[in-house]
Amino acid sequence: xxxxxxxxxxxxxxxxxxxxxxxxxxxxxxSDRVRAPMIREGSRWREVSWADALDRAADGFVRVRRRHGRxxxxxxxxxxxxxNLGLMTHALPFARALRTRNLYSASSADQLPQMLAALRMFGxxxxxxxxxxxxxxxxxxxxxxxxxxxxxxxxAPDMRRxxxxxxxxxxxxVVVDPRRTETADVADEHVAIRPGTxxxxxxxxxxxxxxxxxxxxxxxxxxxxxxxxxxxLVRELSPERVAGRTGVPATMTRRLATVFAETPxxxxxxxxxxxxxxxxxLASWLLQVLNxxxxxxxxxxxxxxxxxAVDAVAILSRLGxxxxxxxxxxxxxxxxxxxGDPPVATLAxxxxxxxxxxxxxxxxxxxxxxxxxxxxxxxxGALGALEHVVAIDPYLNETTRHAHVLLPPAPPLxxxxxxxxxxxxxxxxxxxxxxxxxxxxxxERHDWExxxxxxxxxxxxxxxxAIATGVGRALRPERLxxxxxxxxxxxxxxxxxxxxxxxxxxxxxxxxxxxxxxATADGLVDLAPDEFVREARARLLVEADRDTTGALVLxxxxxxxxxxxxxxxxxxxxxxxxxxxxLVHPEDAERLHLAPxxxxxxxxxxxxxxxxVEVTDEIARGVVSLPHGWGHDRSRIRLxxxxxHAGVSANDVTSEFHLDTLSGNAAFNGLAVTxxxxxx
Length: 680
Ligand SMILES: Nc1nc2c(c(=O)[nH]1)N[C@H]1C(S)=C(S)[C@@H](COP(=O)(O)OP(=O)(O)OC[C@H]3O[C@@H](n4cnc5c(=O)[nH]c(N)nc54)[C@H](O)[C@@H]3O)O[C@H]1N2
Ligand SMILES: Nc1nc2c(c(=O)[nH]1)N[C@H]1C(S)=C(S)[C@@H](COP(=O)(O)OP(=O)(O)OC[C@H]3O[C@@H](n4cnc5c(=O)[nH]c(N)nc54)[C@H](O)[C@@H]3O)O[C@H]1N2
Ligand SMILES: [Mo]
Prior knowledge:
CATH topology of the largest domain: Rossmann fold
CATH class of the largest domain: Alpha Beta
Structural class: alpha/beta
Radius of gyration: 24 Å
Strand content: 15-25%
CATH architecture of the largest domain: 3-Layer(aba) Sandwich
Number of domains: 4
Shape: globular
Bound molecules: ligand 1, molybdenum atom
């Protein structure tokens, strides 16, 4: 491999390359990247053959499962699974086949509230609409920074260009965010909301719309229920009532509601800031309600469902799988399962609390929960006490250092790429397959091969292991992808997608796809699911009147040259000044006697970090912002570059008890903290 360049012939990206993609070269050549399977003895790692490593890895799980039952083996899978074809096809079914209740993923630190809102409103966890960027005249962005993140549950490379193009044709963009972000900088308007109060602001906007009689159900006219219950709730939350709490003046809320209702082509989109907060599910629900009752759901220029080349949702629905919520609760803290998984916020509890069903062994796949889960510091300690830990991961990092066996997959450039997850949320329908750039060497194994080998050893009786493993290996990801493409709405095949190496444009989003897919029992959209209304009454009506002036709260932020926790070992992404800083408003800085560059000690109910301060008026008063994914100063990791730019982990202060109250998703944003000079 010589260089990485953009592909101007790609109809979707038009040659835009995210800086992280250039760093794939660093990843390829990184001498810290683990290349051979290893076994840990005490604090020493020893390279072993694949056969030995897989046997050792599997034996430990077989032993724990036999002695303590299936629930004693936990699995955590992380964000990169979603972008790794072989892990999508192999790891998820394998994890289910283990039939443990202790299956955890990054989803419960991410989009769970949005999926729960979709499940209860539309009857399917994946019925999440995407903004029609190319045709909308008004885009509201709640708690997302797509200029940096590239858009999430809204795949849209080069957002800066797209937003500019929108504005050039006269469309308006409004960003609702406690921080004046890179996205807010290219928008028409920035609304500096108080963290954790989006549900109140959305309810107040609905209050205006309902009060003025602007409700327009459009194509959902005879396909909704509980409109009255919704109206009754939002009637109690006027813009005037919530203004003190949200920090958004009532006149502004009324104006926002009015333009949104009056603009024929408008879309309201929300992401991490919207859902990783205490009322994340309520906010996600009210955001979709706002789209629906103003006639912007399932319409051109509004929010629509994609028509992906591989329609996993349709396939799973046909198999009867739509998602589940609260069929059972976690053992220690009684948190609800979602889609069969308890929230990652309770993984440490399940490891530390003895009794039947206690977690004694853990398999991690492409995840770094020590840095990404709320109160990762506690989890760090808990992992150290486990009997058997195996990690499928290319790095010896904050999480995988606890492994007894480390199984490193082949690097990204050696595998075929088709992003099943991202393509399903793309602002234009598209399909793109990329062949591996580099051949697999004899010593390398793909993620999915490792999973197949491990699965065969753990799940099949000894005499049938070779056959089980063989079946797993015969179901190559490319074969399953080909099948998915053939079954998909565009009736493609892998050969056809491959024939367009720059990617296939499958056209704009189409209206009218939502209605037929509503999967609730009565076929109607539930505008006010009972449990949401109950929770809203219990919380929002109280929150609305709570005086929080004076309290300092923490929010997160993403950075263009970081990818959660794991690309900080790429030298080209680490140039420049330190990025793990705490943003503080000038007035707060003055009050706290903090000057730029000073070290501040930030404390929460969960823990403390000491971090350099950046004083800026881009952050709202009373709010501080710290990026996550840093904190590479722990012992026994093998990340030389990251270690030299260690930073601190935001999740050493986030709390495993500060959760979205309905789903149990981590509420990273809006946590109360105190900040003082480190030398005070
Ligand atoms: N405070 C705070 N915390 C957050 C967030 C926040 O906004 N604020 N965001 C949350 C969100 S949205 C997410 S998605 C999570 C992410 O949480 P995680 O998914 O747990 O964390 P990552 O940092 O993405 O870790 C990815 C791991 O996968 C490994 N890896 C990378 N590529 C591959 C691969 O192809 N195969 C294998 N086997 N391994 C691979 C890396 O070495 C690394 O160990 O973090 C969450 N945590
Ligand atoms: N470069 C880069 N790109 C990424 C990632 C990365 O780490 N680096 N991570 C990927 C992943 S895993 C994900 S899930 C996506 C996430 O994609 P986004 O959601 O677009 O990413 P964030 O930058 O976390 O944006 C969240 C925004 O919410 C704001 N916010 C915080 N609290 C609140 C609140 O209470 N209310 C409101 N309205 N806003 C609030 C924050 O200030 C921030 O600007 O990005 C993906 N893309
Ligand atoms: Mo994420």
